[in-house]
């Protein structure tokens, strides 16, 4: 499969936008006085709704269709299923290898900025590892966003927005411990912002590695894996975070709203 230059630039731009939205969360951590928990709860639920709906209704279907055409009905269904759970396994392993104390998906609030001694030198390493942790975790997310945007631009926009919303509280989560470690808002913002670069870097590296092998079968397996990655992110990170930030019902309302918006947007492009 070959793609023109404009398609590649568009996909990369969307991935860059999604990744660098960690900077938005970092800015919120430094300039807001309190965490808007209701807004974050609904937003994270919305992001999960978009990713879950599009994964099962659109991405899995397209992956299965490609694999069925190339491999036949039975083998196509089998490989779609294996690739889907393979994507889940990949992101689960990455998540497991990141220590919980340094995991960027651990909930942090703006109010914590003044809760501890900012110049504690023992936290310096924690700040560095936090930025590294989010970079590692965002690597496959970048490939997921890039692949979706490259093959289906409209779908890519929706996924990029969902990933961007997902990255905003990550920016808060990274900035708080980095600020604890350094006492510098500038350094905390810079590390949080730059950690988001892992997504476009992940997209480029992943694409370049797969480019020589790209075929309808590889595309189908990759797309099904992307669906698995996004479903795991939604169930393991977004919904628990949404419920911890706010009320249970707010996260579910956001989830349903995300599904509705995604469904309508797909219907408009039929």
List keywords for this structure.
single chain; 270 residues; mainly alpha; 10 helices
How would you describe this structure to a colleague?
The protein has 270 residues and is mainly α. Helices cover 81% and strands 0% of the residues. It contains 10 helices and no strands. The chain is globular, with a radius of gyration of 19 Å. It has one domain (5-268).
Measured by DSSP, the beta-strand proportion falls in under 5%
Give the number of DSSP strands.
0
> Could you tell me the radius of gyration in angstroms?
19 Å
Based on Cα principal axes, name the global outline: globular
Structural class: mainly alpha
Which regions have little confidence, pLDDT < 50, spanning 5+ residues? 101-105, 115-119
Q: Helicity, in percent?
A: over 70%
The ordered H/E elements are HHHHHHHHHH
Number of helices: 10
Number of domains: 1
Q: Note the gap between the termini.
A: 23 Å
State the major sheet.
none
């Amino acid at each position: 499969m070959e793609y023109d230059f404009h398609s590649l630039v568009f996909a990369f731009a969307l991935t860059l936008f999604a990744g660098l939205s960690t900077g938005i969360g970092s800015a919120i951590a430094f300039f807001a006085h309190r965490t808007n928990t209701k807004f974050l709860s609904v937003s994270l639920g919305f992001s999960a709704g978009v990713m879950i709906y599009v994964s099962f209704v659109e991405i899995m279907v397209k992956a299965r269709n490609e694999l069925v055409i190339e491999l036949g009905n039975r083998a196509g269904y089998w490989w779609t299923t294996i690739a889907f759970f393979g994507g889940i396994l990949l992101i689960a392993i990455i998540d497991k290898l990141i220590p919980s104390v340094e995991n960027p998906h651990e909930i942090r609030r703006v109010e914590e900025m003044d809760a501890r001694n900012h110049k504690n030198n023992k936290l310096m390493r924690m700040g560095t590892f936090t930025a590294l942790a989010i970079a590692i975790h965002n690597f496959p997310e970048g490939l997921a966003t890039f692949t979706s945007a490259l093959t289906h631009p409209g779908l890519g926009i929706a996924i990029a927005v969902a990933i961007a919303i997902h990255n905003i509280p990550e920016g808060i989560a990274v900035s708080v411990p980095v600020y604890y470690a350094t006492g510098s808002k500038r350094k905390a913002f810079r590390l949080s912002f730059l950690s988001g670069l892992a997504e476009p870097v992940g997209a480029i590296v992943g694409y370049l590695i797969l480019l020589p092998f790209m075929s309808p079968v590889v595309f189908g397996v990759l797309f099904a894996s992307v669906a698995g990655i996004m479903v795991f992110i939604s169930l393991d990170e977004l919904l628990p975070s949404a419920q911890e930030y706010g009320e249970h019902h707010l996260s579910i309302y956001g989830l349903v709203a995300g599904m509705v918006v995604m469904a309508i947007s797909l219907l408009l492009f039929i």
